[in-house]
Design brief:
alpha/beta; Isoleucyl-tRNA Synthetase, domain 2; Isoleucyl-tRNA Synthetase, Domain 1; 31 strands; elongated; hypothetical protein PF0899 fold; seven-stranded mixed β-sheet; 27 helices
Length: 891
């Protein structure tokens, strides 16, 4: 291809579209079980709640880097993409969308509402997959998954039934986290705690049969309607006189017992607490221990119910304001203090979470967590960064039963069927037909009909389908020994955010050991959290992410990928700034310009190769394999930022600034030899291979522009460069050369010395190092290098710099006075030599004039000393004659 056919400026938009189509047409992303070693990654399925944000772009870029690298290494790379149905978040999105159209979820009914959700899910799944393709993700699209697909739903249902039959799943009353906006329960991990300023109200509870009061501090005076006891610490002598007594709740005037329990913090408030068992997990534990009543005072939307008397139906926060006023009027409010404490918010709807007693479905976790703890402890599963091990163990060792039911319509419906109103009148079955048979058997009523049996309206927690992902995508639940699960499982890597360590990663590990008796993956790389300029986590719910597609359209996908990877480090958060994409674009342009430069050269078959080219080709070969070794070391340690930076500097500095500058033809000679050109192309192709996982579009484009290739020669499936030995001594020597060149260039730039003007370098380096002179002369644009022991005299405009212990000097010279400078230096050097030999002669004659020395040494030694005297005199004579000649010539 002629240089005129190659665009002057790199155009990522046209290249990216063309190259992705080329990969898809070549079927390079597909994977099937064969004789190769598998390398499998399961994509953390993004929620179908909208477009991907910049955090997803980072996560999927890292996965694509791993997959492309593995593919070139010869592994059977299989990257399975997918999306998550995200029950709470998606349902909330669709409800809000319907509200704008004047429609209601409840008026539509379940079936019609789910029709709208399916439309939403299909639309947004396409949006997400198109974004991933635009980023360059080499996923096996034939294997795309959706957590609500029929195959995965069947797996989820089967697991629920199996776990129930084995006693792991049960139904019971527990205090749960309640989202009043979504009107559903939440897991502990879906509650975000934030520090908030509040009010601590001190309330008077009158002691029964006395005029005395006990004072209680609370941040939630509206919950007094659910109080069933007051409690103090058994060792708190201030309240010993209240043992066995009762106290009257203000407003409702109901008497409650005063009890003792070591849970109470004597230093909080007055040291006496109100116990509201239906709305606090710790209060519920105390209530169970002391057999207290449990009174639920909230409706599903967190308004107060009939237990709240005249506050019935009012918003909880409105009640708080009004009840404070009423307590003041009743003189039951002693005082109010400012108080700062943590309040739980729903991760999905951002509403304040209520703790609420509710009948729900739970999964016992303690037993199934044991193998998962051991796998990380013994290194069978490795976390990057390793510091997350500690957090993982803390959570796993304090694990609680998992509330798996949600009061929603969108999701995997519970395979539970009821045939009566009593708590145990239900069966767990895969469908209505089987449920009817089970119900007839359990109820001993053979006449029970379909009309008398109904399915639970709740759905399963979204994560209940996600924790099975490494198994269910290969149909390993319904067919545990099928060909694919045996070949691809366990998978290689999981790349995800540290914020879902417990939501997803820990649970997948438990599922793997529980259902396949194997770990689900070998290594987990946790990305840091990308934050905005206000230090807030970038997320869909906050809508604070830059538009990913806009960034790709402006800078190119490769540039966005490079910018993100250069900023990321395992587990480290970072703030997103658009300028990182600009850095990526500049790097893309640098590589493109290097390619255009090489293609512009004219090649001459039998042209002689300059010494500078011979040296620099040998150096680059050694340098490449040295870089490859460092690159691979960082890559294996999941230090993607460091491996990329090594490559970035190698391309920018070593290849472009040194290698190409030495090789490129001069103005005098327009041609380059064929051997030089072939070496340049060979190493550029090796560089493109290292670059491909990071910048797939640009690297594949240049790879195919160098020459026509058949589909089997595509860069994406080319072989990764193999490691070779290298000459470290040569690299160390050349590094000093590059430092000299850099220093000279800095002097030129800082002193505004044009590159058209010549410089002479006075170097103290020993003569055996002169092999690199051709490189220094060309890259530093010098007229000559002169070796001296000391600073040259009588030379104007002299610049100096140090390198290690050596001092170098630069002289600005023009052609007309160059010979004078050179001659002056020769005279100076000869004078120094003459003086040296005179000093040497003096030491010899001193010995020969010493009688003691002459008598003590052998005749042979004496003859040698006299010969030294004679030789030295001859050298002095010759140098003095040459000095006379130089002086005459100068005049």
């Amino acid at each position: 291809m002629d240089i005129s056919d190659i665009s002057i400026k790199y155009d990522p938009e046209s290249v990216e579209k063309k190259r992705y189509h080329y990969w898809m047409k070549g079927n390079y992303f597909s994977s099937y079980p064969d004789s190769r070693i598998p390398y499998t990654i399961i994509m953390p399925p993004p929620n179908i709640t909208g477009a991907l944000h910049i955090g997803h772009m980072l996560n999927n870029t890292i996965q694509d880097i791993l997959v492309r690298h593995a593919r070139m290494k010869g592994y059977n790379a299989c990257w399975i993409p997918g999306t998550d149905h995200a029950s709470i978040a998606t349902e909330a999105k669709v409800v809000n969308q319907l509200k704008k159209q004047g429609l209601s979820k409840f008026l539509l009914g379940r079936e019609k509402f789910l029709h709208y959700v399916l439309e939403w899910s299909e639309k947004h799944q396409n949006i997400i997959f198109n974004q991933l393709k635009k980023l360059g993700c080499s996923c096996d699209w034939n294997r795309a998954q959706f957590t609500m697909s029929k195959k995965l739903s069947k797996s989820v249902s089967k697991i629920f039934i199996d776990l129930y039959k084995h006693g792991y799943i049960y139904r019971g009353y527990h205090i749960v986290n309640w989202d009043p906006e979504a009107r559903t329960t939440l897991s502990d991990e879906e509650v975000i705690y934030k520090e908030r300023n509040s009010k601590l109200c001190y309330l008077k509870y009158q002691i029964k049969g006395e005029e005395n009061y006990v004072i209680v501090a609370t941040t939630r005076p509206e919950t007094i309607f659910g109080d069933t006891a007051l409690c103090f610490h058994p060792c708190d002598s201030r309240y010993f006189h209240l043992k066995g007594k009762f106290a009257k709740i203000p407003i409702i005037n109901r008497y409650i017992p005063i009890i003792q329990d070591p849970y109470v913090d004597k230093n909080f408030g007055t040291g006496c607490l109100k116990i509201t068992p239906a709305h606090d997990i710790h209060d519920k534990n105390i209530a169970d221990k002391h057999k207290l009543d449990v009174i639920d005072i909230f409706n599903e939307d967190a308004s107060l119910n009939e237990k709240a008397l005249h506050y019935k139906g009012m918003n909880r926060f409105e009640v708080r304001k009004k009840i404070i006023e009423e307590l003041k009027e009743l003189e039951s409010l002693v005082k109010i203090e400012k108080y700062s404490h943590k309040i739980g918010f729903s991760e999905r709807t951002l509403s304040v979470v209520e703790q609420k007693l509710s009948l729900q479905w739970f999964l016992r976790m303690k037993e199934i967590s044991i193998p998962a703890i051991e796998a990380v402890k013994n290194g069978d599963i490795q976390f990057y960064p390793k510091k997350l091990n500690k957090i993982y163990f803390q959570w796993m060792n304090q694990i609680r039963d998992w509330n798996i039911s949600r009061q929603l319509w969108w999701g995997h419906r519970l395979p539970v069927y009821y045939y009566g109103e009593k708590p145990n009148e239900f069966v767990v079955a895969e469908n209505l037909e089987v449920a009817l048979k089970e119900a007839r058997k359990k109820s001993k009523n053979s006449y029970l009909s379909c009309e008398k049996i109904w399915q639970d309206t709740d759905v399963l927690d979204t994560w209940f389908s996600s924790w099975l992902f490494p198994l269910s995508v290969f149909d390993g639940i319904c067919h545990p020994n099928n060909k694919e699960i045996c070949y691809y499982y366990p998978t290689e890597n999981i790349v995800t955010g540290s914020d879902i360590l417990f939501f997803w990663v820990a649970r997948m590990i438990m599922a793997g050991f529980l259902f396949q008796k194997k770990k689900p993956f070998k290594k987990v790389f946790f990305t840091g959290i990308i934050r905005d300029s206000n230090n807030k986590k970038i997320s869909k719910s906050l809508n604070n992410s830059p538009n990913s597609i806009d960034l790709i359209n402006q800078y190119g996908a490769d540039a966005v990928r490079i910018g993100l990877i250069l900023k990321t480090s395992a587990g480290q958060d970072f703030h997103f700034e658009e300028k990182i994409c600009l850095q990526g674009r500049n790097f893309s342009n640098k590589i493109w310009n290097a390619f255009r430069l090489i293609k512009s050269w004219k090649v001459q078959k039998n042209k002689n190769i300059p010494n500078s080219s011979i040296i620099v080709i040998k150096w680059l070969k050694n340098r490449f394999y040295y870089i490859l070794e460092i690159f691979e070391k960082h890559f294996q340690e999941y230090k993607f930022d460091e491996s990329l930076m090594v490559l970035y500097k190698f391309i920018w500095c070593d290849f472009c600034s040194y290698f190409l500058e030495v090789i490129k033809p001069t103005h005098e000679c327009k041609y380059i030899s064929k051997i030089e050109y072939l070496n340049v192309v060979k190493f550029f192709e090796k560089i493109l291979k290292l670059l491909h996982p990071y910048m797939p579009f640009l690297s594949e484009e240049i790879w195919n522009l160098f020459k026509k290739r058949n589909p089997k020669e595509a860069l994406i499936i080319s072989s990764w460069p193999k490691k070779k030995s290298y000459d470290y001594k040569m690299l160390a020597s050349f590094e000093k050369v590059t430092k000299i060149i850099s220093k000279i260039r800095n002097i030129r730039n800082s002193n505004n010395i044009s590159y058209k003007r010549s410089l002479i370098l006075f170097s103290p380096i020993k003569k055996e190092k002169k092999e690199y002179d051709p490189i220094i002369l060309k890259l530093a644009n010098l007229s000559e290098i002169i070796y001296v022991l000391k600073k040259p005299k009588n030379i104007s405009k002299l610049f100096s710099f140090f390198l290690d212990t050596d001092q170098f000097f630069l002289s600005l010279t023009d052609p007309e006075n160059y010979l004078n400078i050179s001659r002056n230096l020769d005279i100076l050097n000869i004078k120094k030599k003459i003086q040296y030999f005179y000093n040497f002669l003096s030491s010899i004659r001193k010995n020969l004039s010493n009688d003691k020395y002459v008598i003590s040494v052998s005749e042979n030694v004496l003859l040698k000393e006299k010969k030294k005297e004679s030789d030295t005199l001859k050298k002095i004579y010759k140098l003095e004659k040459y000095l006379e000649f130089l002086k005459k010539d100068k005049n």
